[in-house]
Amino acid sequence: MSAVSPNQAADFAWLLKGLNQEVPSIRGSVLLSSDGMMKAAYGLDRANSEYLAALASGLFSMARSAGTRFDDAGEARQVVVELRSSQLYISWAGFNSVLAVLARADADPGVVGFEMARLIKAVQPFLGTAARPRAEG
Fold first, then answer.
1. Whole-angstrom Cα distance, residue 112 to residue 129?
2. How would residue 15 be classed by pLDDT, with cut points 50, 70 and 90?
């Protein structure tokens, strides 16, 4: 069960739509909780949005682990994956929240990163995800 209300999900989808419009080379974007639950998506169908959320959660978790092991910080700012015809950007977006963006291979990484950071900075207080209570049983 998601901690995001339908109204919040629509608001977040609207923000993601704006990001996609600012950077036409973005194919789709997903806002997710750090444990992989999709909060909002734009530009991808539901199955691909959920897959991207799970993938981004795993990659970001590994990056945080690398930060703990090799950087004494335990935090990660961004993960970038270059594929043959796409680029994947995964950024911290607030407490327990991550933003994943899938762009075409010809996307300018500086522009994509800048626009992601601008979006996150503008709405960061609203992007945090409360920790889920532990299941009892």
1. 23
2. confident
Q: Domain 25-127: give its CATH architecture.
A: 2-Layer Sandwich (3.30)
Q: What gap in Å lies between CA 63 and CA 2, rounded to an integer?
A: 24
Q: Residue range 57-72: average pLDDT?
A: 90
d(Cα 52, Cα 64) in Å, to the nearest integer?
18
- 19's CB contacts (< 8 A; 6+ apart) are 26, 29, 42, 101, 115, 116, 119
Q: If residue 89 lies in a helix (H) or strand (E), which one and from where to where?
A: strand 86-94
Q: How many CB atoms lie within 10 A of CB 16?
A: 23
Q: Which pLDDT does position 2 carry in this prediction?
A: 39
d(CA 29, CA 44): 7
